[in-house]
Structure formats: structure tokens, C-alpha cells
Amino acid sequence: MKNLSLFMALILVTSVAFAGASKKKEGEKRGEQMRKELGLSDEQLAKMKEIRKKKKENQREARAKVKAAREAFHSTVRNPKASNDELKTKFEELQTAQAAHHRGGFETMLEIRSLLNESQRAKFHEKRKMFREKFEKRRKKHDKEVDGDME
Question: Are residues 84 and 137 in the same domain?
Fold first, then answer.
């Protein structure tokens, strides 16, 4: 029994390590793909990596703030003794957190945009458009599946 537990622990650690390495390789592949498709220089690619790293840290904080504000708002909504003024305050706090989150994404887009020349911007815009369309198709498919489960 002890050997089985040890074996299972070893498999878990190995799979987690492999997944982390795989994710890093995927990021490197994406960077190389972006370099080729947009014709990025080494300097542009390095700056993009810095921007994405900073964005990841900032967005994590912003999402946590939105989540906390959303939970506070919903708990206030569920509280039968909460006043309308309390609800308005919590709602405004939620909107402020959401706006900060969106503003962070916009600022990141501006930073990336400033790195690119005109033709690179056009290619970048087209890639973003394709990504959004792909995302929307997946979201609609998921929504249909969820709606179908509810019937």
C-alpha cells in the first residue's frame, strides 16, 4: 500500500512538472509564431514579452479585485436588511473594479501597438479579429450546449 501511494505521488509530481514545461514551450512557440507572422525584431519580441509579463501580474490583481467586489455586491443583494444606498455603493465599487480591469487591457493594447509599425499593426489587428471570432464561436457553442442541458 505504501509503495502504491509513493508511486501515485511520483506520477503526480512528474505530470505537474511536465505540464509546466509543456506550457512554457507553448508560450515560446506562440512567441516565435508571432515573430514570423508580424515580422518582429528581437527587440520588439523582448519588449512584448515584458509587456505580457507585466500584464499578467496586473490582470491577476485586477481580476481578484473584481471578484471581491462582485462577491461583496452579491452578498449585499442577498441581505434583506441592506439599504438601497448600500446596494448602490457596492454596485459602484463593482463597476469601478471592472473598469480598472478593462482599462488595464486597453493600456496593454496601447503599449503593444506603440511597438509595432503600420503594417505590423494591421497584421496584429487581423490576428486579434480572427481570435475574437474563434472565441465567439466557441462561446456560442458552449452556450447552446448549456442551454440544451437545461431543457
Answer: no
Q: What is the DSSP string of 77-90?
A: HH-TT--HHHHHHH
Q: Which three cell numbers stand for residue 90?
A: 457596492
How many domains does the chain divide into? 2
Examine the domain organization and report whether 95 and 141 are in the same domain.
Answer: no
CB 59 within 8 A of CB 101: yes
C-alpha cell at 57: 501580474
Contact between 81 and 63 under an 8 Å Cβ cutoff? The reply is no
Judgement on whether residues 137 and 150 belong to the same structural domain of the protein: yes
Record the pTM.
Answer: 0.62
Is residue 149 a part of any domain in this protein? Answer: yes
Which domain range does residue 146 map to? 118-151
The per-residue pLDDT string of the chain (151 residues; one tens digit each, 9 = 90 and over) reads 555 555 555 566 555 555 555 556 776 787 788 788 888 888 988 898 899 888 988 899 999 999 999 999 999 999 999 999 999 999 999 999 999 999 998 998 899 889 999 999 998 888 889 888 988 998 888 888 877 655 5
